[in-house]
């Protein structure tokens, strides 16, 4: 049976290679902030009851009521997903930093 020290002699070299490749990779890739920023903006704008609520509690469309219901949450979720998918996947909107 081989000793444990013999079996793991390659480990420090492997960890060094992995860390060096990660450091090189970090400097070659720019961060894409578009999904984060678009998601935050859409989340705030499409929060049911904040700017508008569709369908509202008393009317079909209410503005600034600060009230919501289950239907409005479902519709605003679908709107969020549709707009987010179009902006990120179809339009290929990117915001790079670095």
UniProtKB/TrEMBL annotation:
PANTHER family the UniProt entry points to: OS05G0103400 PROTEIN, TRANSMEMBRANE PROTEIN
Swiss-Prot/TrEMBL keywords: Membrane, Transmembrane, Transmembrane helix
Stored InterPro entries: DUF3339
Stated name of the protein: Transmembrane protein
Transmembrane segments: 7-27, 33-52, 73-95
One Pfam family, short name: DUF3339
């Amino acid at each position: 049976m081989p000793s444990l020290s013999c079996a793991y002699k390659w480990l420090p070299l492997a960890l060094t290679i992995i860390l060096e490749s990660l450091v090189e990779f970090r400097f070659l890739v720019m961060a894409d902030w578009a999904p984060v920023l678009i998601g935050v903006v859409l989340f705030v704008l499409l929060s049911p009851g904040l700017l508008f609520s569709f369908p509202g509690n008393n009317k079909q469309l209410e503005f600034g009521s600060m009230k919501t219901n289950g239907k409005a949450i479902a519709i605003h979720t679908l709107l969020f997903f549709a707009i987010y998918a179009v902006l990120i996947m179809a339009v290929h909107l990117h915001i790079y930093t670095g």
